[in-house]
Each structure stands twice: as structure tokens, then as C-alpha cells.
């Protein structure tokens, strides 16, 4: 506890006062592992590194990632990630490999369809407020199964068992918005799917930029950059937009 800053102590006390002992204990452990060192990179510099790593990945000359014993020990007592990645759980979309990054460089929130619920939002806010991460990348990808499921709900009223329906639900507004954008012109399923992937990323980017006070201020003062991206499964390229 001696390493906690005043604001961390206050937050810790507030959590305890609320009786959420489990959350408080978890927060304490996370705070201990982050003794205050933060990246000196700006959001744009971090973004440039990701772009460079992806260019090497697509050229089939992947950037040598930082790993091994020395690096492990260097970051064992505190992490200094350069970016938060909100991306899909899809096994073909592993952020570290696509961007040539190694141990302790990316703070990753992954779920099918790269949406942000309360738990994901809290994870992101922690990364920005406590770890000083200057960049958030929300990354969708080509032929996303989760987005495809949402398209199927909208187009065919498909139902899904278990919790899959709830997982797909936050993506449905993106499909509706993509379909509205395509308008009356004839479009293929693949066109609607890809437009929905992009709309889903845009919705999450806008939510992160504007809806929460903990991110609003760093975005306003340009200490935090939030960008959208789409990964192409065929050529390996990450396109940044939004
Ligand atoms: Zn996906």
C-alpha cells in the first residue's frame, strides 16, 4: 500500500467504503504492479509504431518482438503499455502478431465482435488513468463471425442459444446503421457485413471518445488518441479510420 498515490488511496478507500472488498483487492493488486512508470510516447508516436509493425508483418518480415528473460524481469514490477487494443477474439486476429509488439507493450481487451461493455470500459479507463496509455485502437476485421451473426439477426431474425444472443446484441445497431447507409441500392451480404464491421468500430470509437468522463478529458486535451481500424484477413493490412 505504501506505493499507492493519494488518488489511488482515495479510490481504494471509496471502494472499501462501498463494501466491494473483492474489487478493492483486485485494484490494490493492479496498482502494486504499476509503480508509476508510464510511456513517454504520444498517441501519434504509438500509432506510428503500430503502423510500422503492421507494414513489416504484411511484407512477411515481422518486426522482432521484445520478449525473453531480460524483458520479463524488466517489466515484472510494472507495465508501461503503449496502446490499448479493443479487438475481436477471432484466432486469426492476434494484435501482438499483427503489429509486431512484444511483452508488456499492448493492453488488450478482446471479445467476439470487439464491443465495449462495462467491464471492458473499466479495463480501458484503468489503462488510460493509471497506466498512462496514450492510444486506444478499436479494431474490427474482415468477415467477422460475431458481426455476421448480428447481420443474420437483422436480416433473418436468427436466434442464438445460450449467451450468444446477448453477445451479439450490442452489434445490432451497427448493422441497422450500415443498412441505412447502403440505402435503396442493391447490396450483397458481404457488402452489408463489411459496412457493419466498420459501423461497429465507429460506434465503439464514438462511445469511448464521448461518453465517459474518464476518457473525455484526456481526449479533449489531446493526451489520448482514439482511432478505429479494420484488419484485412487476406492481405494482413490494418487500415486505420474514424
Ligand atoms: Zn470477429
Main features:
single chain, 50% helix, binds zinc ion, 11 helices, five-stranded mixed β-sheet, 2 domains
Commentary on this structure:
Strands 2-1-3-4-5 form a five-stranded mixed beta sheet, sandwiched between helices. The protein folds into two domains: 1-32, no CATH class; 38-241, Carbonic anhydrase (Beta-carbonic Anhydrase, Chain A). Mean pLDDT is 87; it is low at 1-34. It is 50% helix and 12% strand. It has helices at residues 6-17, 21-32, 43-58, 69-74, 95-99, 118-129, 145-156, 164-168, 172-182, 189-210, 213-220, and strands at 83-87, 106-110, 135-141, 225-231, 238-241.
Shape: globular
Level-2 CATH architecture of the largest domain: 3-Layer(aba) Sandwich
- What's the CATH class of the largest domain, please? Alpha Beta
Count of discrete alpha- or pi-helical segments spanning 4 or more residues: 11
Structural class of the helices, strands and pairings? alpha/beta
**CATH homologous superfamily of the largest domain - what is it?**
Carbonic anhydrase
Ligands (ions, cofactors included): zinc ion
Sketch the major β-sheet: 5 strands, mixed
Strand content: 5-15%
Per the CATH scheme, the topology name of the largest domain is: Beta-carbonic Anhydrase, Chain A
Helix-strand layout with pairing:
Blueprint: H1 6-17, H2 21-32, H3 43-58, H4 69-74, E1 83-87, H5 95-99, E2 106-110, H6 118-129, E3 135-141, H7 145-156, H8 164-168, H9 172-182, H10 189-210, H11 213-220, E4 225-231, E5 238-241
Parallel strand pairs: 1-2, 1-3, 3-4
Antiparallel strand pairs: 4-5
Helix pairs in contact: 1-2, 9-10
This protein binds zinc ion (ZN).
Amino acid at each position: 500500500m505504501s506505493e499507492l498515490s493519494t488518488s489511488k488511496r482515495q479510490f481504494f478507500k471509496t471502494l472499501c467504503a462501498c463494501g466491494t472488498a473483492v474489487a478493492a483487492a483486485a485494484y490494490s493488486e493492479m496498482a502494486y504492479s504499476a509503480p508509476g512508470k508510464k510511456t513517454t510516447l504520444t498517441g501519434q508516436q504509438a500509432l506510428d509504431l503500430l503502423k510500422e509493425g503492421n507494414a513489416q508483418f504484411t511484407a512477411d518480415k515481422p518486426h522482432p518482438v521484445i520478449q525473453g528473460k531480460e524483458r520479463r524481469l524488466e517489466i515484472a514490477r510494472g507495465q508501461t503499455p503503449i496502446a490499448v487494443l479493443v479487438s475481436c477474439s477471432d484466432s486469426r486476429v492476434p494484435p501482438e502478431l499483427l503489429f509486431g509488439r512484444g511483452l508488456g507493450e499492448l493492453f488488450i481487451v478482446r471479445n467476439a465482435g470487439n464491443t465495449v461493455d462495462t467491464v471492458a470500459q473499466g479495463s480501458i479507463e484503468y489503462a488510460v488513468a493509471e497506466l498512462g496509455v496514450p492510444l486506444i485502437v478499436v479494431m474490427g476485421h474482415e468477415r467477422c463471425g460475431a458481426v455476421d451473426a448480428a447481420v443474420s439477426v437483422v436480416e433473418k431474425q436468427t436466434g442464438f442459444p445460450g449467451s450468444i444472443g446477448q453477445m451479439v446484441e450490442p452489434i445490432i445497431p451497427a448493422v441497422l446503421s450500415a443498412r441505412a447507409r447502403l440505402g435503396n441500392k442493391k447490396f450483397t451480404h458481404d457488402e452489408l457485413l463489411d459496412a457493419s464491421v466498420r459501423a461497429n468500430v465507429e460506434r465503439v470509437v464514438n462511445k469511448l471518445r464521448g461518453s465517459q468522463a474518464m476518457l473525455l478529458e484526456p481526449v479533449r486535451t489531446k493526451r489520448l488518441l482514439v482511432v478505429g481500424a479494420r484488419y484485412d484477413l487476406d492481405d494482413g493490412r490494418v487500415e486505420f479510420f474514424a
